[in-house]
């Protein structure tokens, strides 16, 4: 038995050995007696030859597949695995993206030309016509008559009769490809060199020469010798170095040109370290300290350098920038002249600084900056007005540090009043108000069982919302500065002194006020400055359009969606936590309005009242969107009270815009009968201005639109309340409330009136700028009323026709020159009017599609035309993706998005293109996950995810997208929603490289990567972003 098992083991060992190709002698020492090895691949040459030495063995190669000595008719040999076949198999046809083919595609085509006739400029070889002597003999060779005469002659076998057309030497026609292209490139190089040599001051020529380098690198090298085509690596560094050399030559010729130096710095970003780059920037700023555009670029550069970034550093840099520009403006910096547009740029930089501080979480500093500049601008004592800016700031400091109430605080009187009182001998101490009840702080931790990161986010958010006002010691409670629990909540004068600037232009002073109101969340008409628009964009609410989907005609579009107002720092997943501000914040806004009402009177004061009422309406709209009935009721009570108080003021009693907003507020709250009463009262008291009164037109338009939205269909619309309102407007008589019918005679009269009024407006020559704005508004309201009237009495096509005619008139510049202005009447005068009319047009089409059957194409065409002209209009984009959602084919929309993103620098097309794809993805997922047995998805998810990622990648590489926090937040949110944790983390750090100041990014990261809470907080502390709840405090709070 034992012997048997040994035998089996031996057998196994042997089989192991024989299965391998090579065997080492060391492995087989166990049985040396008869060791042999089986060769699995025998060599027949061992039998055929006497020797095993390979030199003795004859070698041959077979040529062809034949064999000598066989009878080809009876015998044949099939050769196995012929080498030629094997070679053929190995050579696959090459695809277009292989190295050789790419090289071939990159070279330009070879122009073929006839060299024998250099005077003839044609770029092709002509086929000469031949007259045949007798057409009858051609029928046998050309039965169908389709060959040209020269071919027919050839088919007949005859020679060419005319000897002057000798065949062109092929050598001349086909040129050697390399040389031909080289000669073209060389000529271009020579041209560029000649241009910059003859005219070294021409900046455009230099810039063109720089961008030509890319084209030059694509072709073969023009400097290689004819025989050997040089093979060269097209390295990026090589191109960059060539461009750099050209730019340095250009700067030598134009030492004072800023554009060339900026282009050079942009190139250097690719291969220089940040410290070296910053040094170069500093040199550039030192040479041109009076150039505000350069300062803006420098600030953005420093703000987005993650390695060297810290909030205090950047904040002091903003201060330095504004101090320098203020010195240039005062004339105290003698070395550099004041450039035009500096004051406007200074305000833009100031607002950018406030948004920077808000985004970094230092909201107290941002609010203080605005408070200080408003006091510094509007309450300046006459005694200091002639001093330079720095001198005025020195006088302002004692006021700021005196503990006196500031703008937005109770009892604020302003700097001027304080100075007067100081000269007289101080204030009289006022008794504190007793009615100020103590507000209970909400208990900060509501549920200790939640994970730590969740609790941290909750507390951080709540403090962000409650504590955005700067902390001031309350004198009545005998508080001192030491009593403040969080020293960061106090703002020192050193933080804001350098940023104070003088604004002498009244328009800019107003812009400052409205910017502050927008900052607090009050919707105003004016937009932010475009230069800092996208780096302040950080809120994901630009796609929300609940009301505009339900009520397309009257959807309110507030100009600043996309920007978080102060006190709101919501993460992407949670969305808006609360509406408006907490009690302290609302009181602050109220106080700000009261102070501003004292500053202005007349129209400006009414505009401020409109802003305040719009703010209340915006809160009601948010309540409606959130479907929070309890909150809506409370908010409605407050808002109505405010509206009534505003209307009680003598200045506002006859102000139709306020009555309009009040009636709209009642309508939104669902009190339709009350709203109608308000509208009717306003129209009765408005007088008989008719179509000529802009406010009356606007009021009637809104009233009619709201009424139309109540209609179920266009049946019986001719005798509806809306038609009554619009006919009464056209009659210009006293308004009579609706009694249930409309006379057709009145309808006909009204139509004629509208037609004439519109013609008058369109043929009217333009006047001053101020009148232009009111004219534009009036035109929009008039067209809106007329089109709505036609829609109700005739039909949708009649309304669309009016919009089309008006738009055509506004687009085409009139041929006649106006005598008084010498300007063409055209789109330049009414740019906003055309946009507003387009919006009315598309909204009416959307409404009509909602209540009746109508093709989608007219609306789609109207929207695409409008968006090509106004690519940054968010309302139009919202409508566009709303209608695209219903379409199964995405290719049209994708082509359109692609076209628009190429033709504009705006970021909106990218954002909405991404949103459209995400909605499509959501739709396909819903269809695929629907729980109805076996379901066949009609829309396959073919690479939608990859498409969205590609869109994001392109968008973040665009000039405006690189530093837009909202775009990075959306990208991060998308990757996190796919569950790609590692990728998302990489993206988060990439986002920080570009937007290290955006605190919302860090808060989003805490939600996506809860395990790294400590790491994220350390990063925020290192970069000096505001952390309101340090980890140590959180641990203490959790222990209690």
From TrEMBL:
SUPFAM superfamilies: TPR-like (SSF48452)
Subcellular location: Nucleus
Organism: Buteo japonicus
A biological process term (GO) from this entry: RNA processing
This protein's UniProt keywords: Nucleus
InterPro entries according to UniProt: HAT (IPR003107), NRDE-2 (IPR013633), TPR-like_helical_dom_sf (IPR011990)
Similarity comment text for this entry: Belongs to the NRDE2 family.
One GO cellular component term: catalytic step 2 spliceosome
PANTHER family for the chain: NUCLEAR EXOSOME REGULATOR NRDE2 (PTHR13471:SF0), TETRATRICOPEPTIDE-LIKE HELICAL (PTHR13471)
Name of this protein: NRDE-2, necessary for RNA interference, domain containing
Major location category of this protein: nucleus
């Amino acid at each position: 038995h034992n012997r048997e098992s040994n035998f089996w083991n031996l057998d196994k060992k042997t089989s192991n050995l024989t299965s391998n190709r090579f065997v080492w002698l060391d492995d087989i020492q166990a049985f040396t007696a008869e060791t042999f090895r089986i060769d699995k691949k025998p060599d027949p040459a061992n039998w055929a030859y006497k020797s095993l030495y390979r030199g003795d063995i004859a070698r041959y190669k077979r040529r062809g597949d034949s064999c000598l000595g066989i009878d080809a008719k009876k015998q044949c040999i099939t050769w196995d695995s012929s080498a030629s076949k094997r070679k053929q198999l190995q050579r696959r046809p090459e695809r277009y993206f292989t190295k050789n083919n790419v090289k071939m595609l990159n070279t330009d085509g070879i122009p073929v030309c006839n060299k024998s006739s250099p005077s003839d400029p044609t770029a092709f070889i002509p086929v000469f016509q031949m007259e045949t002597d007798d057409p009858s003999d051609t029928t046998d060779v050309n039965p169908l008559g389709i060959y040209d005469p020269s071919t027919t002659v050839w088919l007949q076998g005859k020679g060419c009769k005319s000897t002057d057309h000798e065949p062109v030497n092929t050598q001349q026609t086909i040129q050697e490809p390399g040389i031909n292209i080289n000669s073209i490139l060389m000529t271009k190089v020579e041209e560029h060199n000649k241009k910059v040599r003859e005219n070294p001051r021409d900046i455009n020529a230099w810039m063109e020469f720089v961008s030509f380098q890319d084209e030059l690198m694509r072709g073969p090298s023009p400097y290689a010798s004819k025989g050997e085509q040089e093979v060269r690596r097209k390295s990026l560094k090589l191109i960059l170095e060539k461009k750099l050399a050209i730019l340095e030559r250009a700067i030598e010729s134009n030492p004072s040109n800023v554009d060339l130096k900026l282009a050079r710095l942009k190139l250097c970003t690719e291969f220089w370290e940040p410290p070296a780059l910053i040094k170069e920037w500093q040199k550039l700023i030192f040479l041109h300290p009076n150039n505000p555009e350069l300062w803006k670029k420098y600030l953005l550069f420093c703000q987005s350098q993650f390695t060297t970034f810290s909030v205090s550093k950047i904040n002091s840099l903003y201060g330095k920038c504004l101090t320098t520009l203020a010195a240039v403006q005062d004339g105290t910096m003698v070395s550099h002249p004041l450039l035009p547009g500096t004051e406007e740029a200074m305000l833009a930089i100031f607002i950018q600084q406030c948004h920077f501080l808000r985004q970094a979480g230092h909201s107290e500093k941002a609010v203080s900056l605005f408070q200080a500049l408003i006091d510094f601008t509007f309450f300046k004592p006459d005694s200091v007005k002639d001093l330079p800016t720095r001198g005025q700031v020195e006088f302002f400091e004692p006021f700021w540090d005196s503990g006196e109430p500031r703008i937005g605080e109770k009892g604020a009187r302003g700097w001027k009043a304080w100075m007067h009182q100081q000269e007289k001998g101080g204030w009289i101490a006022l008794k504190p108000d007793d009615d100020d009840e103590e507000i209970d702080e909400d208990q900060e931790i509501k549920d200790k069982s939640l994970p730590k990161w969740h609790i941290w986010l909750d507390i951080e958010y709540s403090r962000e919302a409650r504590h955005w006002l700067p902390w001031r010691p309350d004198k009545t409670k005998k508080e001192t500065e030491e009593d403040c629990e969080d020293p960061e909540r106090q703002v020192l004068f050193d933080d804001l002194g350098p940023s104070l600037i003088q604004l002498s232009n009244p328009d800019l002073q107003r812009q400052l006020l409205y910017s502050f109101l927008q900052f607090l969340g009050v919707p105003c008409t004016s937009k932010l400055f475009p230069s800092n628009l996208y780096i302040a964009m950080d809120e994901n609410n630009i796609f929300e359009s609940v009301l505009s989907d339900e009520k397309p005609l009257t959807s309110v579009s507030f100009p600043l969606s996309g920007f978080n107002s102060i006190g709101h720092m919501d993460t992407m997943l949670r969305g808006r936590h609360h509406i408006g501000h907490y009690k302290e914040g609302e009181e602050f806004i109220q106080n700000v309005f009261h102070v501003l009402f004292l500053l202005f009177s007349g129209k400006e004061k009414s505009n401020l009242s409109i802003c305040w009422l719009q703010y209340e309406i915006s809160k009601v709209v948010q309540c409606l969107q959130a479907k929070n009935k309890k909150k809506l009721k409370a908010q409605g009570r407050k808002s109505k009270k405010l509206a009534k108080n505003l209307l009680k003021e003598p200045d506002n009693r006859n102000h139709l815009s306020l009555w309009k907003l009040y009636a709209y507020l009642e309508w939104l709250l669902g009190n339709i009968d009350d709203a109608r009463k308000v509208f009717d009262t306003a129209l009765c008291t408005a007088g008989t201005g008719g179509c000529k009164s802009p406010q009356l037109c606007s009021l009637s338009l809104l009233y009619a639109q709201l009424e139309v939205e109540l209609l179920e269909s266009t049946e019986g619309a001719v005798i509806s309340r809306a038609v009554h309102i619009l006919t009464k407007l056209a009659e210009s008589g006293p308004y009579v409330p609706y009694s249930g019918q409309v006379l057709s005679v009145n309808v006909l009269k009204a139509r004629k009136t509208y037609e004439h009024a519109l013609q008058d407006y369109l043929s009217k020559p333009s006047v001053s700028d101020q009148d232009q704005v009111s004219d534009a508004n009036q035109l929009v309201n008039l067209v809106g009323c007329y089109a709505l009237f036609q829609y109700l009495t005739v039909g949708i096509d009649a309304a669309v026709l009016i919009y089309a005619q008006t738009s055509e008139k506004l687009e085409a510049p009139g041929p006649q020159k106006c005598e008084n202005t010498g300007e063409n009447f055209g789109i330049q005068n009414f740019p906003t009017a055309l946009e507003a009319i387009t919006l009315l047009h598309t909204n009416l089409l959307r409404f009509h599609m909602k209540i009746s059957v109508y093709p989608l194409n007219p609306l789609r065409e109207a929207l695409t035309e409008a968006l090509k002209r106004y690519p940054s209009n968010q309302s139009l984009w919202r409508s566009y993706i709303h209608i695209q959602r219903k379409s199964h084919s995405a290719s049209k929309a994708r082509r359109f998005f692609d076209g628009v993103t190429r033709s504009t620098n705006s970021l909106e097309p990218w954002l909405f293109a991404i949103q459209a794809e995400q909605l499509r993805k959501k739709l396909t997922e819903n269809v695929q996950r629907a729980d109805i047995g076996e379901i066949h998805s009609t829309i396959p998810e073919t690479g939608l995810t990859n498409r969205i990622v590609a869109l994001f990648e392109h968008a973040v590489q665009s000039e405006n997208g690189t530093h837009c926090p909202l775009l990075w937040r959306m990208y991060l949110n998308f990757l996190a929603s796919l569950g790609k944790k590692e990728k998302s983390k990489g993206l988060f750090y990439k986002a920080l490289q570009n937007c290290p100041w955006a605190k919302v990014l860090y808060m989003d990261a805490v939600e996506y990567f809860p395990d790294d809470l400590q790491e994220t907080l350390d990063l925020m502390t290192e970069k000096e972003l505001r952390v309101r709840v340090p980890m140590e405090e959180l641990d203490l709070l959790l222990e209690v």
